[in-house]
Design goal:
By secondary structure, this protein is mainly α. Helices cover 59% and strands 6% of the residues.
C-alpha cells in the first residue's frame, strides 16, 4: 500500500489549499503497519524474538508519529523489546522523548485556541516542556561522546571556486567519514538536534511571545545551534550520496586528498533511502536559512525521484510539511 501511494502521489495531484500535513493524516498504511506491529507485540513476541523487520517497522512508526504529532502507544515505547540495544537504544529513547514533547506541545497549542484557556494558564506546562526539550538536546550531545574515534568526520575544502550551492554541494566545505555507516549515524544526529532545537524555539515563543530579555538568550542559542547543525548536515550530504572520492595514504590513518568529484553520476537508490529521513526533517522545520532550506528541499525531491517516492517530490512545493 505504501508503495502504491508513493507511486501515485505527486505534486500535480495535490488539491489546492490542502496542506501536506493534512494529507499525511490519511496515510492509512502507517496505521496498518502499527496494527501489525501491535499484533506481533501482544500475540507473537513471547515466542518469536524481534527481527530486523520488526525493529525497522517500529522505527518507521516513531518517525510517523513525529511527522503527524501523534501520541505513541505505551506498548511501543520500550525499545529493548523490539531489538534495540547499545547506542541505538540510547538514541531510540531520546527520539521517543522528542516525539512525546512534540505531541504535548501540539496539544498545548490546540488548548491555547480554546476560550476557557489563557496563555497564562498553560505557561507552567510549557515551562516544563521547555526544560525537557533542553535536557534532550544536551543528552543528544552526550550521546556522541560515546562514539569511537573512528566514527568522527574530517573536514575538507574544495579548491575550485564556484557559485555555491552547485548541485549536491551546498558549499566548498565537505565532510568525509571512514564509513558510509558512520556518516548515516551522524546525519541522523544532526537532523535530530535540528528538530529538537526547532521545537525549543516554538516552546520559547509560546512561553514568551514577545521575546523579552529572558527569552532572547535561549532563543539565540537555539538559532545558533540550528545554523551550525544545518551546515554540518549540508557538508555531509555529498559524502553520503557518494559525490566524491578520496585518496588514502597507507602510511596514515586519515584521508589525504579529494581525488574525484562526481557531480552527475547516478545516485544508488539504497544510498538515497538512507539520506531521506534527515533531509525530510531539515526541509520541514522553520528558522533554517531560506536558501539552505530550499537546497534541502530540492535534494529531497530529487531523491524522491530516485527511489520512486512521489510523495517526496512534494518537498519543492509550497504545500510541503512543516514540522
Amino acid at each position: 500500500m505504501s508503495r502504491y501511494e508513493s507511486a501515485v502521489y505527486c505534486p500535480s495531484q495535490l488539491k489546492p489549499k490542502t496542506s501536506f500535513a493534512t494529507t499525511l493524516k490519511t496515510f492509512s498504511h502507517h496505521d496498518g503497519a502499527l496494527a501489525i506491529l501491535n499484533f506481533w507485540k501482544h500475540n507473537l513476541s513471547h515466542n518469536q524474538p524481534a527481527t530486523d523487520v520488526i525493529k525497522h517497522t517500529r522505527r518507521g512508526m516513531i518517525k510517523s508519529a513525529l511527522m503527524r504529532n501523534l501520541a505513541l502507544p505505551k506498548w511501543i515505547l520500550e525499545g529493548t523489546l523490539f531489538g534495540e540495544h547499545g547506542l541505538e537504544l540510547e538514541y531510540d529513547c531520546l527520539l521517543i522523548r522528542i516525539a512525546n514533547v512534540r505531541q504535548r506541545l501540539f496539544m498545548l497549542l490546540k488548548e491555547k485556541t480554546l476560550p476557557q484557556h489563557t496563555c497564562h494558564d498553560l505557561t507552567p506546562t510549557a515551562e516544563k516542556l521547555k526544560q525537557e526539550a533542553q535536557d534532550i538536546d544536551e543528552a543528544l550531545q552526550d550521546w556522541t561522546a560515546h562514539f569511537p574515534s573512528s566514527w568522527w568526520y574530517q573536514r575538507h575544502t574544495l579548491s575550485k571556486p564556484h557559485p555555491w550551492p552547485i548541485g549536491d554541494f551546498y558549499s566548498p566545505i565537505i565532510y568525509s567519514y571512514s564509513s558510509l555507516a558512520y556518516a548515516m549515524v551522524w546525519i541522523q544526529y544532526f537532523a535530530t538536534r535540528m528538530l529538537i532545537n526547532s521545537t525549543r524555539l516554538r516552546i520559547l515563543k509560546f512561553c514568551r511571545p514577545d521575546i523579552d530579555h529572558f527569552a532572547k538568550e535561549p532563543r539565540s542559542d537555539c538559532l545558533s545551534h540550528l545554523k551550525t547543525l544545518a551546515n554540518d548536515l549540508a557538508c555531509s550530504i555529498p559524502f553520503c550520496l557518494q559525490r566524491f572520492e578520496l585518496t588514502y595514504s597507507p602510511n596514515s590513518t586519515t584521508y589525504q586528498n579529494i581525488s574525484t568529484l562526481n557531480k552527475s553520476g547516478d545516485i544508488k537508490p539504497y544510498v538515497a533511502s538512507l539520506v531521506i529521513w534527515p533531509l525530510t526533517i531539515a526541509s520541514s522545520i522553520g528558522d533554517v536559512d531560506v536558501e539552505q532550506k530550499l537546497w534541502f528541499k530540492s535534494q529531497l525531491a530529487r531523491l524522491g525521484r530516485v527511489v520512486g517516492a512521489g510523495v517526496l517530490e512534494c518537498a519543492e512545493t509550497d504545500e510541503w510539511l512543516e514540522l
